[in-house]
Write a structure and sequence with these properties.
Layout (H helix, E strand, L loop, with lengths): L4 H13 L2 H5 L9 H7 L3 H11 L3 H7 L4 H10 L4 H21 L4 H6 L17 H15 L5
Helix pairs in contact: 1-7, 3-7, 4-5, 4-7, 7-9
Length: 150
Amino acid sequence: MAVSARDQNSLSRLMDYLGGRAVIRKTIRSRLDLVPLVRAGLPYAALEAVGSRLHVTPETAATALLLPARTLARRKADGKLDAYESERVVRLADVAARAAEVLGEDNIARWLMEHNQALGGATPMEMLDTDLGCEAVKDILGRIEHGVFS
């Protein structure tokens, strides 16, 4: 399956947020290549990489993704996330990559932490613990990209 230049750029940015090949240790050519990696569990370093790119601690990112502190400590010691946690980390990285496309790299962390009226006063980061919330955040980014006040 051919991947468009835009999709490849988006995938590349997503992988950067996850720590790139240094963390993932596989060549990722499409989003489907991530599925078995997520199912097997990503390295804990992927959460650290996303947090670092967003200028938040792994604990802050984990809290937003509803990952309990004790579980996070165990995952850090094990060096690996489970499938459920991995999917949430990919979700965060995906939204961050999309926000970078729309808002620019320097504006992502602030935007994710600001209360947003279009999200009922929640911050975009607070919405990333569910698929529905994530889609709402992506919808807002799409509206911003097309010049619609959000």
